[in-house]
């Protein structure tokens, strides 16, 4: 995967050279150079092996022997299971099926689902899935029709006025399928991790960290501030950023009473598993087209690799020298206590209206 990012077919070639050939067997001068090059490589490898301490060579031999023995043991276990199932099936077939009181589910192996190739490939995983997500460009997607809103509305945003404005502006850049409200089992969806990375890349905003207090007494600090960096890593983990992002999205949608981001009943998402994450994560079930898609998917894949097979999204969200796509005119951002009080008053009026 790392080689594929720097590979230049105009500059590099892969050539298979058969080893242990004599110089006399060369067909031409180029073939002779291949044989000579392989001979030199063998000499270099042999020299390194000779200089390797005995205990390291012994350790390598022991590892190779153990792996070979484990393979033989695994084959023996599989062979046992196959014979056991054959005997069980034979015994089941000897009994009257109407009177049988046993599980016959193993009589016939389950047929794997047929491969589906459309916007997504049902069998793609790893690097193939990465290419599909990186190059995702369907033709029938559209932006949601959203009206402009006054900047004053964002001063009710609990996490910050400018952050709320950035979220609203970013969300309008996403495009969705015409039938996004309908279920599509072939759709991989998009994880919240991908969404917060894209929001970060496009706007330059991370989500703030609440360092202390609740409600009107909440104290928020910038994600990249020295105070935040001194906090335990768990405070800046992607899982915390996702939670804050979802709260922000719900908060702004309530304030604006505007559908600028679809509301899905389910949160099933397959995209991170396709990229190699070890377990399912939450997201949106229908995948949108996003700006700066290549950078986003590349950053997400690197993040997954940094987890080292951990199911927890414990690493921080950071990309060096992010260059935002949108530059927003800053608006007045009241203190957290004022934002909270304004939001509380707004919700009281909203409840009365609904009654």
Structure description:
The chain is mainly alpha-helical and 355 residues long. The protein has 2 domains: 2-51, no CATH class; 126-354, no CATH class. The chain has helices spanning 2-6, 29-51, 54-94, 126-134, 161-171, 192-203, 226-229, 238-256, 271-275, 293-306, 336-354, and strands spanning 141-143, 175-177, 190-191, 209-212, 219-221, 283-284. A two-stranded antiparallel ribbon has the order 1-2. A two-stranded antiparallel sheet has the order 3-6. A hairpin with a 6-residue loop joins strand 4 (209-212) and strand 5 (219-221). Helix 6 crosses helix 10 (293-306). The two termini are 58 Å apart.
Rounded mean pLDDT score: 90
Report strand order across the widest sheet: 1-2
Strand count, sense and closure of the main sheet? Answer: 2 strands, antiparallel
Q: How many DSSP-defined strands?
A: 6
Q: What level of helicity do the residues show?
A: 40-55%
In whole angstroms, how far apart are the ends?
Answer: 58 Å
Main structural class: mainly alpha
**Domain count:** 2
C-alpha-based Rg, rounded: 29 Å
Low-confidence stretches: none
Q: What's the helix count?
A: 11
Task: Tell me the β content.
Answer: under 5%
Based on CA inertia axes, which overall geometry fits?
extended
Order of helices and strands: HHHHEHEEHEEHHHEHH
